[in-house]
Write a structure and sequence with these properties.
The complex is a heterodimer.
Chain A lengths: L2 E3 L4 E5 L4 E3 L2 E3 L5 E8 L6 E7 L7 E2 L2 E6 L4 E6 L8 E9 L8 E3 L3 E6 L1
Parallel strand pairs in A: 2-12
Antiparallel strand pairs in A: 1-4, 3-9, 5-6, 5-10, 7-8, 8-9, 10-11, 10-12
Chain B lengths: L4 E3 L2 E4 L5 E6 L6 E8 L3 E9 L2 E5 L6 E5 L5 E5 L8 E8 L10 E2 L3 E5 L1
Parallel strand pairs in B: 2-11
Antiparallel strand pairs in B: 1-3, 3-8, 4-5, 4-9, 5-6, 7-8, 9-10, 9-11
The chains are: A mainly beta, B mainly beta.
Chain lengths: 117, 115
């Protein structure tokens, strides 16, 4: 069975510093996708970045990058130059199988990130 | 392009009642998934519909059901509500691309409180 583990329940970071949010996963499937979502206090889940299991390069989206280490089964999110608006819950999620297949995501427990001014 | 919309945003029910939540996906998206979010269990997958067919189902009792209409709009129903059903219910829609990945776009959620 798939499993996502986020070991940091909460993190506190100074504004403008870089921050790394940890995510490890477990799956027996060779084809899978890894996602990071941000959930502000409003509740809506905001898609940040995606990494496919066959992608050779780490994904990047603006200030977000994903440090993908397949052998270690880790997919850490790196936020560069953090901003006050980055304060939120962050979830790592995994989809098993082909991207054209059933869209079921398994989520980790999340990390609450607080950016201090 | 309008995002995923969910109605109602807030709902208060009593034990034993039933409830229906609605989700309108992004135009052109054919896949709709539902998730339950609680402080104790986190985010859990309920089910996914694609072209009016349930394609995948999570580990929830039969009191939880759903359907999808020809316009891709989806509803989920919870019958005989229990206190533990109090949660944020999130709907997500996804496009169907023959290549690349299909990220899920989430709606704002419906917060259900069962008294």
């Amino acid at each position: 069975a798939q499993k996502i583990t986020q070991t940091q329940p909460g993190m506190f970071v100074q504004e403008k510093e870089a921050v790394t949010l940890d995510c490890t996963y477990d799956t027996s499937d060779q084809s899978y996708g890894l996602f990071w979502y941000k959930q502000p206090s409003s509740g809506e889940m905001i898609f940040l970045i995606y990494q496919g299991s066959y992608d050779e390069q780490n994904a990047t989206e603006g200030r977000y990058s994903l440090n993908f280490q397949k052998a270690r089964k880790s997919a850490n999110l790196v936020i560069s130059a953090s901003q006050l608006g980055d304060s939120a819950m962050y979830f790592c999620a995994m989809r098993e199988g082909r991207s054209q297949g059933a869209q079921k995501l398994v989520f980790g427990q999340g990390t609450r990130l607080t950016i201090n001014p | 392009k309008a995002g995923v919309t969910q109605t109602p945003r807030y709902l208060i029910k009593t034990r034993g009642q039933q409830v229906t939540l609605s989700c309108s996906p992004i135009s052109g998206h054919r896949s709709v998934s539902w998730y339950q979010q609680t402080p104790g269990q986190g985010l859990q997958f309920l089910f996914e519909y694609f072209s009016e067919t349930q394609r995948n189902k999570g580990n929830f009792p039969g009191r939880f059901s759903g359907r999808q209409f020809s316009n891709s709009r989806s509803e989920m129903n919870v019958s005989t509500l229990e206190l533990g059903d109090s949660a944020l219910y999130l709907c997500a829609s996804s496009p169907y691309r023959s290549s690349g990945y299909n990220e899920q776009f989430f709606g704002p959620g419906t917060r259900l409180t069962v008294l």
